[in-house]
Design brief:
With 484 residues, the protein is an alpha/beta fold. 49% of the residues lie in helices and 12% in strands. The strands form 4 sheets. It has a 5-stranded parallel sheet with strand order 2-1-3-4-5, with helices on both faces. The structure holds adenosine-5'-triphosphate (ATP). GO terms for molecular function: ATP binding; phosphorelay response regulator activity; sequence-specific DNA binding.
């Protein structure tokens, strides 16, 4: 077993495991992937990889052979699909093993690689699988980060009522509808419902209906068969299958198109479904928790939401209060997030003066707890001292402005900035400077990157994504701009 040495780039290095009893295959893959960002480790049997998984050591991608002494790749895959559905597995198979490859997809393999394989193809597949694993980590099975950050805070009576409801629902698998403005903690409550249910050992899978293009949503939910539509190059399990035995959290359910509402209703009432383009019936054992910031009754009245589905989902309804409806929780939430931001950034914890705390309580918090969490991160990075005073608070808060102002206000900031830039360019040109971009370009990129880093609490990958850079670009830029 050996790990390839990798230069330290300051960002997580994607980890890939190769499990194959054939030393030549392990060698080829290690060499091929050594030229990429992956740190590769090889195992000659399932048992040693399983021992590492049991210790909680989880790679981002696994390449596994099928036929090996000891446990075979398919039985390993079956277990992995239940225990760690977030890890994509690429099954490697000899040509004569195509039947097994089909079996591999049925058991949840991400893809398969026929031996002998083209090295470039193996690298491409590794990258694709890694991207999928990152996406799953964001949307799907409970990531560790979310688990550790899953503490629900709230002393206000409305929150205490929610806590009691979670307790009362602990023994049941009933469908729950969570209502509340964006950022009030709907997903956090759904996770808590799952964690305190008898399904806690099963997966928690979240899907934001509004975030997926409408024409992809059906296959995202129910999966598809290979060739079901253009672009369906391989069979894929949908969120319903991924959540088997666990909980499926459907956020922004009000945005679901009507045809899909019909399909969802059918799964909820019949307990089974077909993959897109599929002919075999798949049994579903999933608890659905739905959430929305909209008033579903209104959507029903307007004919945009099926009334029967509404009744089916609305068995138990939890209404999360907005943050301005529970002002008494603001100081405690702020302290909690200031401690967490300081831990994340490895800096001393900042505290608030009484006046700053009072100002925060006056602010209407249109973005609710999510906005408060972001402000805590921002203050941890930007406030000069360890005690935060009113003067250190961002303008939006000191001006007491809610979210409505931001679009117009931000446009103004942008136009002020471009006119400043134009004056600067004019002055430098008059001074005889050339190649203005060499100065302005990095300053521009550095400013955006620093703001995004402050916003994400120093998380480089998330910051890059917010700016619109890819994984490789941000590594390069951090180096060029001297930001790490
Ligand atoms: N009561 C709470 N205690 C601690 N943290 C909370 C609480 N409510 C929300 N948060 C935090 O605020 C952020 C937003 O919460 P969450 O994603 O659950 O909101 P949401 O209502 O599902 O938002 P959206 O509708 O926009 O998806 C998360 O980081 C969550 O951890």
């Amino acid at each position: 077993m050996q790990a390839a040495d990798k230069p330290t780039t300051g960002r997580p290095i994607p980890r890939l495991w190769v499990i194959d009893d054939d030393q030549a295959i392990r060698w080829v893959l290690e060499r091929a992937l050594a030229t990429t960002d992956f740190a590769v480790e090889s195992f000659d049997e399932v048992a040693s990889a399983q021992a590492r998984l049991d210790r909680g050591d989880l790679p981002d991608v696994i390449f596994s052979d099928i036929r090996m002494p000891g446990e075979d790749g398919l039985s390993f895959l079956t277990r992995l699909a239940v225990e760690h559905p977030e890890i994509p597995v690429v099954i490697m198979t000899a040509h004569s093993d195509l039947e097994s490859a089909v079996g591999a997809f049925e058991k949840g393999a991400f893809d398969y690689l026929a031996k002998p394989f083209d090295i470039d193809e193996a690298v491409r597949l590794a990258e694709r699988a890694y991207d999928a694993s990152r996406e799953r980590a964001q949307h799907a099975a409970v990531p560790e980060e979310a688990e550790s950050g899953s503490e629900l805070i709230g002393n206000a009576p409305a929150m205490q009522e929610i806590f009691r409801a979670i307790g009362r629902l602990a023994r049941s698998s009933v469908t729950v509808l969570i209502n509340g403005e964006s950022g009030t903690g709907k997903e956090l409550v759904a996770r808590a419902l799952h964690r305190h249910s008898q399904r806690r050992d099963g997966p928690f899978v979240a899907l934001n209906t509004a975030a997926i293009p409408k024409d992809l949503l059906e296959s995202e939910l129910f999966g598809h068969e290979k060739g079901a539509f253009t672009g369906a190059a391989a069979q894929r399990r949908g969120r319903f299958e991924q959540a088997q035995g666990g909980t499926l959290f459907l956020d922004e359910i009000g945005d679901m198109p009507l045809e899909l509402q019909t399909r969802l209703l059918r799964v909820l009432s019949d307990g089974h479904f077909y993959r897109v383009g599929g002919t075999s019936l798949i049994q579903s054992d999933v608890r659905v928790i739905a959430a929305t910031h909209q008033r579903l009754e209104e959507l029903v009245k307007d004919g945009r939401f099926r009334e029967d589905l509404y009744h089916r989902l609305n068995v138990i309804r939890l209404k999360l209060p907005s943050l301005r409806e529970r002002v008494e929780d603001i100081p405690q939430l702020m302290r909690f997030f200031l401690v967490r931001a300081a831990e994340e950034l490895g800096v001393p914890v900042k505290t608030l003066t009484r006046a700053a705390e009072a100002r925060l309580c006056d602010y209407p918090w249109p973005g609710n707890v999510r906005e408060l969490e972001n402000i805590a991160r921002w203050l941890t990075v930007m406030a000069p001292g360890n005690e935060i005073s009113i003067d250190d608070l961002p303008d939006t808060i000191t001006e007491g402005l809610g979210g409505e102002h931001t679009a117009a206000g931000d446009d103004q900031l942008l136009s002020r900035w471009t006119s400043d830039l134009s004056r600067w360019a004019d002055a430098r040109l008059k001074a005889g400077d050339q190649d203005l971009l060499a100065t302005a370009g990095p300053a521009f990129e550095r400013t955006l990157l620093q703001a995004a880093l402050a916003f994400t609490g120093g998380h480089k990958q998330k910051a890059a994504a917010l700016i619109g850079w890819g994984r490789n670009t941000v590594t390069r830029k951090l180096k060029e701009l001297g930001e790490h």
